[in-house]
Write a structure and sequence with these properties.
With 131 residues, the protein is an alpha+beta fold. Helix content is 36%, strand content 26%. The chain has 4 helices and 6 strands.
């Protein structure tokens, strides 16, 4: 005999509209006073890595001592062919700037995540291994 019990019900169109409208209101309220995000951060970071115009934050060097094995060359290599991790974008309250997460492969082929900010140039804030 087949199991006729339903574990869940699909949302109706009315429920979908309610849910999406609440979500949009919450997002617009939370980002109302933030500056707009920079478009194509991954492409700008790749261009900066190719031309050698990257800036490195002192926080990065502090993290590199505790996270052994991530060098400046690893960061530049990863940024040349990186992809953006949209879920990890965040707004830094003290600096009043957006920080973006980019994922790419270092010299050894391991994935690393690189936190960057845009201040005219690309500023590398932190880096860590993904896996």
């Amino acid at each position: 005999m087949a199991n006729s019990r339903k574990n869940g019900q699909p949302l109706t169109k009315a429920a979908d509209k309610k849910k999406s409208s609440k979500k949009k209101k919450a997002l617009s309220a939370s980002t109302a006073n933030h500056p707009t995000k920079v478009e194509a951060v991954d492409l700008k970071a790749a261009a900066a890595a190719r031309t050698g115009t990257l800036l490195f934050d002192p926080h990065l060097y502090k993290r590199q001592t505790s996270r052994k094995g991530i060098t400046d060359m690893d960061i530049e290599t990863a940024l040349k062919r990186c992809r953006r991790d949209w879920n990890r974008d965040r707004f830094h309250q003290q600096k009043k700037v957006w920080q973006y997460s980019l994922i790419g492969q270092n010299v050894d082929g391991q994935e690393i995540c690189i936190g960057v900010e845009v201040h005219g140039n690309i500023l590398v804030v932190t880096a860590y291994r993904v896996k």
